[in-house]
Design goal:
Layout (H helix, E strand, L loop, with lengths): L4 H4 L6 H22 L8 H14 L22 H33 L5 H16 L5 H22 L6 H9 L6 H21 L4 H20 L10 H5 L5 H6 L10 H10 L2 H21 L3 H10 L1 H5 L4 H27 L3 H27 L24 H10 L4 E4 L4 H8 L11 H15 L7 H10 L1 E7 L4 H9 L4 E6 L3 E6 L2 H9 L18 H17 L3 H14 L4 H13 L3 H14 L3 H13 L3 H14 L4 H13 L3 H14 L13 H16 L2 H14 L4 H13 L3 H12 L5
Parallel strand pairs: 1-2
Antiparallel strand pairs: 2-4, 3-4
Helix pairs in contact: 2-4, 2-5, 2-17, 3-4, 3-19, 4-5, 4-6, 5-13, 5-16, 6-7, 6-8, 6-16, 7-9, 8-9, 8-14, 12-13, 13-14, 13-16, 14-16, 24-25, 24-26, 25-26, 26-27, 27-28, 28-29, 29-30, 30-31, 30-32, 31-32, 32-33, 33-34, 34-35
Length: about 750
């Protein structure tokens, strides 16, 4: 015998509990389907389907990169099964079918979680839907969520009852290992299950014989499941990539590898916005309560799994869906059992129990109705946290579809430079005839190249850096999307002599290199950045599409300095979705540029009230800084830091601001706090853009202003050691040596600076 069914599966005990479960489960499935029913907006879907297309066309799995010209021929390791399935679905029904698949995956995951569930499990599933839907977009990761739910369901039912279809585990794993690196989570579940049974054995008592019996029956299937992971195109080599997919630098660059800060300001902001983060904090509370109950009942394995898994989603955003699965399956029955025992002890009349159950169902029904209404009306997608998708089917508004069609139609010459985010879509839309500069396999390109591609967008297009890059790779076309580097580079490209824009709309720009080959194209498609109509079209299919067009147009117009037009576009966007914080921020930016600061402040305060997050508070802080409102700016910067996953960069920014207003003591406090809050990963970086370099230079300047020159020298030496090729660091050190009377050291520092390039 395993653990008592009365402890773990109380849904079989009473008619009331069973009926409550069925109603709540139905609500959870409806909500899950609606949450997954949205346009395709994931940045990785494109390159995964492009890889699937290559496999279908060439009938084998590539071992080197085949989608880019910058990493062509480099070793490439990524399971291709998901890409093949998604590409075939795309051929059959386009992006519309992919949206339906996303909805089915979300609802299917919830169904697997509730396969042997309880009323509490169903209630928790309703809360968890936003976290599950976040990772069931049509991409390879979607299959990991579904397979994880299936694995956990099978193993936990077996642990509870000693009976389950364990033969399904190796079958699922054989598919899983060829679909996504998340198969490692399946192995983690096996380890967690074995560890739980070992704890049962070690604890002795009446549970020990049943645990031994279950292990003796299951070990063959568990070993077989582990062994089938080697049945893939790379054999054991897949583990090298699977276990190293997220290095620390990539975690700072990619949003899905970032985490959620566990503090009161973040929790309070999460509940005011709703969605993923509010669900995460609710699940954490439920997991802690369930773990406490499990410990009282000596269910050591369940308690350890619940508590240990709670770390993952706060460390990495993308782990939230897996965590949701754990809480639904393990915490749900524990909480249901506790509630039933409590009900029996108070001996409430049957009618009262029905009233309480009905009230609970009604509350969840109202919650599902409210959240479903937010989804269907797009208030969820255009509300507190900006989303790339909208409710419905098809392709997201974010992708540069019209610009890609222009490139294809006009057959633009040479290789195309693209930024990281749109690289997946570009590889699908423009390939296989054209390869891309970079796309979403970050392990292929590495942090250094990713940073290099970002730096290119920050330098003038007529600079030697662009000339070197264009000559090296034969780049004649630059293709950028809004939100993916276009904002910072657009004004520079509009003013360039060597590059000219030939296409511009509210989400993308196409720029070509001036040459005899492209001169005719430039003459046929002249783009005047000062007068180009934005949005490029005013024919819209629905309000979501219209809103996206106007809000993006507002951002592009603001970048181009067309502030009156940006103001008008922002107002049109707000007429459609008045509760969109980004639209209020855009409107505030236009008002500030038009010298209407009081109105701009009101809009920024509205944005903060709607979505109190790091980006809204940071925008307000920047506004106060430009208005020379020092105290207000410092308060806003601190609020932003409290809400950031990693407050250290914001604290460095606060320290630099304090220096700019001649407050070195507050600057030192901010720099010291940044060092205390920073992770060990952040402290490993070197170079001029590293966190440690910025802190060291800030501290040196603060101590210099205070008058403690030895301390200033100490930190400036650190800065010079962190960035030995930066001339400015050595010149600053030489100046401090002079102030401290160390003329010989100052001369050596100046001589070293003179030997470096003037950067």
């Amino acid at each position: 015998m395993g653990p008592s069914n009365s402890d773990f599966i109380p849904g079989q005990n009473t008619s009331l509990e069973r009926r409550t479960f069925f109603v709540l489960a139905g609500l959870a499935l409806i909500y899950a389907f609606l949450a997954g029913f949205h346009t395709v907006g994931d940045l990785d879907t494109g390159w995964q389907m492009a890889t699937g297309r290559w496999v279908v066309q060439h009938h084998h799995v590539p071992s080197v990169d085949v989608l880019s010209y910058t990493a062509s021929g480099e070793p490439w390791t990524y399971p291709v099964g998901a890409g093949v399935v998604l590409y075939l679905a795309y051929l059959a029904g386009g992006f519309t079918l992919l949206s339906w698949i996303s909805a089915a995956a979300t609802a299917g995951t919830v169904a697997l979680l509730l396969r042997r569930g309880s009323s509490a499990s169903a209630g928790i599933a309703i809360i968890a839907v936003p976290m599950i839907a976040q990772r069931t977009q049509p991409r390879a990761d979607m299959f990991t969520v579904v397979f994880f739910a299936a694995f956990l369901s099978i193993l936990w039912v077996y642990y509870q009852s000693g009976r389950a279809a364990l033969w399904l585990l190796p079958v699922i794993m054989l598919v899983w290992v060829n679909f996504h690196f998340g198969f490692a989570a399946g192995l983690g579940l096996i380890a967690a299950y074995v560890g739980t049974e070992v704890l049962e054995v070690m604890s002795g008592g009446e549970r020990r014989p049943a645990a031994v019996q279950r292990l003796c029956h299951a070990w063959r299937w568990l070993v077989a499941t582990s062994l089938v992971t080697f049945v893939n195109a790379w054999g054991w080599g897949i583990y090298r990539t699977a276990l190293g997919t997220a290095n620390t630098e990539q975690q700072r660059l990619l949003g899905e590898w970032q985490g959620v800060r566990l503090n009161w300001p973040t929790a309070r902001a999460a509940f005011s916005i709703g969605g993923y983060r509010s669900a995460l904090f609710l699940l954490l509370a439920l997991a802690v309560v369930a773990a406490g109950i499990a410990l009282l009942q000596r269910q050591w394995g369940a308690a350890i799994i619940l508590l240990a898994s709670s770390y993952a989603p706060f460390r990495h955003f993308r782990m939230g869906s897996i965590y949701a699965c754990v809480v639904v399956i393990i915490a749900g029955p524990i909480l249901t059992s506790a509630l039933l025992r409590f009900g029996c002890r108070i001996r409430a009349p049957l009618r009262l129990r029905w009233v309480l159950a009905g009230s609970t169902v009604l509350c969840f029904a109202l919650l599902v109705y409210a959240r479903s209404a937010d989804l269907v009306t797009n208030r969820f997608y255009f509300g507190g946290t900006p989303q790339l998708s909208t409710f419905g089917t098809g392709l997201s508004w974010w992708f540069p579809r019209r610009a890609a069609e222009f490139i294809e139609r006009e057959n633009l010459p040479g290789e195309i430079f693209n930024a990281y985010g749109a690289g997946g879509y570009d590889s699908l839309k423009l390939g296989p005839q054209r390869r891309v500069y970079i796309y979403g396999v970050d392990t292929l390109f590495g942090p250094a190249f990713m940073q290099h591609s970002l730096r290119l967008l920050d330098i003038p297009p007529d600079s030697p850096g662009w000339e070197t890059e264009a000559s090296r790779y034969g780049i004649n076309t630059i293709f950028l999307s809004y939100g993916d580097g276009m904002e910072g580079a657009l004004r520079n490209f509009c003013a360039s002599n060597l590059w000219r824009p030939v296409y511009l709309d509210e989400v993308s720009v196409v720029v070509v290199r001036r040459s005899p080959e492209t001169e005719g194209l430039i003459q046929r498609f002249p783009v005047n950045c000062a007068t180009a109509p934005l949005p490029a079209t005013t024919q819209f299919h629905n309000s979501a599409e219209e809103f996206a067009a106007w809000i993006n147009a507002a951002g592009v117009l603001q970048v181009l300095g067309r502030n009156s037009e940006a103001l008008s576009a922002s107002e049109k966007a707000l007429q459609l979705f008045p509760e969109n914080p980004l639209a209020h921020t855009m409107l505030a930016g236009a008002l500030a540029q038009l010298n209407r600061p009081s109105e701009a402040e009101k809009e920024l305060l509205k944005a903060v009230a709607i979505a109190p997050g790091g980006y809204t508070w940071s925008a307000l802080a920047d506004f106060y800084r430009r208005q020379d409102r020092v105290i207000d700016a410092i308060v806003a910067y601190r609020r932003a830091a409290d809400l950031e996953v990693d407050p250290s960069p914001m604290l460095v920014q606060l320290g630099n601001y304090a220096l700019s207003v001649a407050d070195p003591e507050d600057a030192l406090q901010a720099f010291d706090e940044a060092m205390r809050c920073s992770s060990s990963d952040l402290k490993r970086g070197t170079g001029e853009n590293s966190f440690l370099y910025k802190v060291a230079t800030g501290r040196a300047e603060a101590w210099r202003r205070i008058g403690d020159i030895p301390q200033a020298v100490k930190f400036q030496k650190q800065a010079a050691q962190l960035a030995p090729n930066v001339q400015r660091a050595w010149l600053n050190l030489a100046q401090l040596y002079e102030l401290s009377g160390r003329s010989a050291d100052a001369e050596r520092a100046r001589a070293h600076a003179a030997s470096l390039p003037n950067n």
